[in-house]
Specification:
The chain has 499 residues and is mostly helical. It contains 20 helices and six strands. Helices cover 65% and strands 4% of the residues. Strands 1-2 form a two-stranded antiparallel ribbon. It has a two-stranded antiparallel sheet with strand order 3-4. Strands 5-6 form a two-stranded antiparallel sheet. Helix 7 crosses helix 8 and helix 18 crosses helix 20. The radius of gyration is 22 Å and the shape is globular. It starts with a helix and ends in a 10-residue tail after the last helix.
């Protein structure tokens, strides 16, 4: 059994998975792949996460938090790019782990990626609901309180979930259902819709930076640039360096980087679409790196303007950008930003819901989950339609009933864990497959992967300890499923392990 669970999937088997009638349609070019990366990244980080992190975690120093998070992502992005060019198949980090670290690690990271994308989708659906309600409020319409928010919120002081008085976040549920229906229809239609939404929200981001720059008061930076300190590093919830919040969690510039790391979730989703790229060896690495660099520059620009327009402690935690414009008397701009936020977050939701089924498809091809259900590709649309419906249903439950803050932190730790695995896998694959064609090579191996691992672990340890417990519970559930089903039905079962 021990040999089986650590058996690696040969590289040639990964490439063979792309053959046959069960392969996805190759129709994505470099511009489309880059727009998918930007579509996943730009949105929640600006329109949802920024307000909470600036007000309660880092203050104006949040602009440096984005730089730290961006540098961490650069290390991971270079590793992702090498693997995407080496094995351009569906599955992303799951596939890379299977080829290098063995079946058990592949299962762990695949199960973790499902959490990352599904919970990420639920988080942005919550943010979409907030902005949507702000837009319709401009026309005098209101969603009833019982249908306008999550049914539960997390009380950090008590350490438990409590009722809010609402029954379900109905707008979040409806948008998830609508996007799921679009995704079942086909990747080409989904990509075109995403491209249009990306154009809208990038225009809105540039509007925020250009117009907001005229209303910046430098005193908002110089008065108290780092009110919570420069560090905020913890270890399993125990602060090591820096200040702590009333709930005992780390706060500061580095803690801010751990919290807003969610904002960069998405560039890695480009690799999940490698099987649908026309020229994956070239276009997928290009899409990963370009989308990350563009988004980092835009993020830092927005945070500079936002924390300069209003004092950090008056930034709204749920809709920080639009409310900052409202505080400066720009009511019409507030409405436009909220409307762009609706469009922008829709594209983030689309890419998150697009990515999770591709990971499940890869796992189903390997027999670790049911191939008949999760591996089913629609004969006409060429999409993993059953997996898409299953993920959509799961996200509906999360988005309808859980609060945004708990979802946000769960997504961060899952993403960072995936990045650690990918960074570790690059030097391993260099050793076991030294002659394999690598159209893109990560520079300075093993230095870059080791820096990526160190940065990701630092941010993981700085997250509140409750997130570790949620991750461990999720992984424990996954391990039970693997031992009960995946191990017994694995396509590698009974085969000699890869050399």
């Amino acid at each position: 059994m021990t040999r089986q669970i650590f058996a690696r999937k040969p590289l040639q088997d990964l490439l063979d998975d792309m053959a046959g009638d069960n392969r996805l349609r190759r129709c994505l070019g470099p511009a489309t792949l880059t727009s998918l990366g930007i579509g996943a990244v730009i949105g929640a980080g600006i329109f949802v996460a920024t307000g909470e992190a600036a007000r309660n975690v880092a203050g104006p120093a949040l602009m440096l938090s984005y730089v730290v998070a961006g540098i961490t992502c650069v290390f991971a992005a270079l590793c992702y790019a090498e693997f995407a060019s080496l094995a351009p198949v569906a599955g992303s980090a799951y596939t890379y782990a299977y080829a290098t670290l063995g079946e058990l690690f592949a299962w762990i990271i695949g199960w973790d990626l499902i959490l990352e994308y599904a919970v990420g989708a639920a988080t942005v659906a919550n943010g979409w609901s907030s902005y949507f309600q702000e837009v319709i409020a401009g026309f005098g319409w209101r969603v009833p309180a019982a249908l306008g928010g999550a049914a539960l919120r997390y009380d950090a002081a008590a350490g438990e979930f409590v009722r809010t008085g609402s029954y379900v976040n109905l707008p979040a549920v409806l948008v998830v259902a609508a996007v799921t229906a679009v995704l079942v229809k086909g990747i080409r239609e989904s990509a075109r819709f995403n491209l249009a939404m990306v154009g809208v929200k990038v225009s809105a981001v540039l509007f925020v930076i250009i117009v907001g720059a005229f209303y910046v008061d430098p005193a908002n930076w110089t008065r108290d640039f780092a009110p919570y300190g420069w560090t905020g590093v913890g270890f399993f919830g125990t602060p090591l360096f820096g200040q702590t919040s009333a709930a005992g969690t780390p706060v500061g510039m580095l803690a801010g980087a751990a919290i807003i790391f969610f904002a960069f979730l998405g560039f890695d989703s480009v690799s999940t679409h490698a099987e649908e790229a026309r020229r994956p060896q070239r276009d997928v690495p290009l899409g990963i790196i370009v989308s990350l660099l563009v988004c980092t520059v835009l993020y830092v620009g927005v945070v500079v303007v936002l924390t300069g327009m209003v004092p950090y402690d008056t930034i709204d935690a749920n809709a920080g950008v639009s409310q900052a414009f409202a505080q400066r008397g720009l009511g019409h701009a507030r409405f436009l930003i909220a409307a762009a936020g609706v469009a922008g977050i829709t594209s983030v939701l689309l890419v998150m819901l697009l990515s999770a089924p591709r990971v499940m498809l890869a796992m189903a091809r390997d027999g670790l989950i049911s191939p008949r259900f999760f591996g089913a590709v629609h004969p006409r649309f060429r999409t993993p339609w059953k997996s898409t419906l299953a993920v959509g249903g799961f996200v509906v439950l999360l988005a309808g009933f859980l609060p945004i803050d708990s979802l946000l932190h769960m997504t961060n730790i899952g993403t960072l864990f995936a990045f650690v695995i990918v960074c570790a896998a690059v030097p391993v694959m260099r050793r076991i497959e030294p002659q394999a064609a690598r159209p893109f090579r990560c520079p300075w191996v093993p230095v870059v992967p080791l820096l990526g691992i160190a940065c990701c672990l630092m941010l993981m340890f700085s997250l509140p300890v409750a997130n570790w417990w949620r991750l461990l519970v999720w992984l424990a559930i996954g391990l039970v499923i693997y031992l009960a089903y995946g191990h017994r039905h694995s396509r590698l079962r009974g085969r000699p392990p890869a050399a």
